Fold:
Amino acid sequence: MPWQLLLIIIFALVFVFLFSGIPVAISLAAVGIVFAFIFLGGGGPLAYAAWDICTKFVLVAIPLFIFMGTLLLRSGMSERLYTGATALLGKLPGGLLHANIASCAVFAAISGSSVATAATIGTVAIPELKQRGYEDKLILGSLAAGGTLGILIPPSISMIVYGAITGVSIGRLFIGGIVPGIMLALLFMSYILVRVIRRPQMAPAYEKMPLKWRVLRIIGMWPVAVIMLGVLGGIYLGVTTPTEAAAVGSIMALVFGLAYRRLNWSILRECLRSTVKTTSMVLFVIVGAWLLVAILAVFRLPDYIIAWVASLAVPPLVILLLVYGVYLFLGCFMSGVEMMLLTLPIIFPIITALGYHPIWFGVAMVILIEMSLLTPPVGMNVYVIHGISPENPLTEVFISIIPFFIIIVVGLAIITVFPVIATWLPGTMMPVRG
Structure:
């Protein structure tokens, strides 16, 4: 059978299963198992593939980072973070809208999840901003877009999955996401600044606060800063692997939660239960996708595709833009982890063969995943913000993110033209072990 026809059949079956409502993990695994028994006479290679992916040490970081983020959410750190950001940025035109972006950026550096970032900061910010008379579209758009920073500014579960699949250093991926993440946050804030300067009525002036109270609120953010520096500083200096850094961050979050008397056995049990639930979902998808990847490898489909791409008489940038288009399309129907697991075994070798830096592409892919968090019909961050503010129609929330979506596209274009933005900081790191 020609490899082109085999590839079409495999992915056609995957999409048939997905659109029929079968869970993603089962859909991916089922296609792999069916082809294994038809063409290989058994599932031996698949059993080895499942064992291989489940024993990767780097995946231990996933439950640890999830646990850390959950602890910070339940221990009240998010309120401290938001009030501190408000005191720091409240005097700027746009006031609390800048606090939205800054709080999302900082919380992203300790949670690793965009949905958790949007939900956490949105729950604190939306009632406050609506009470003060801010325009709804700027409130909703800034929070939905700001939440996407959760998977770009490290730690990032998406980067962990990318590194586990490709073998790229997760520590360097984490550090590579810092500058692009800050760049996007500044682009969001610049847009808000320009809009509010042109139409001041969109964001009322922030009420004056005594200097003493302002300083106290800013200082109140110190536990979040300590955790962030403990996690990222250890990785950057080569002292800890990402998994070890996740363990350090979890312990620090637990200690701060207990010190502020915001944790008890009931809350701790709920944090553990939430961590197990989320981790199980992610790992089931990973295993299911890895079974399908094993079949692709057996039939050498990635090798055939790379050879075919190499034979095309087009510039590498054209192929890269086609890859961008594929991810933008898939992002309308699939989550970021699902997209990566389904496509990276084929796409990654093509990208590296064209001469693109693997760390840069990891950062670019995460930005593409950010877009999928804002595009219908999936758009998880949009649904999260709508769930917090159900009085605003879903269509209004989707409309509110359009300018921020365009800004993310601009950010992707900038790092495509200047890839050093993503590769410079990792190049200055001490040697890392993961």
Notes: Residues 59-281+301-427 form one domain. The chain is about 75% helix and 0% strand.
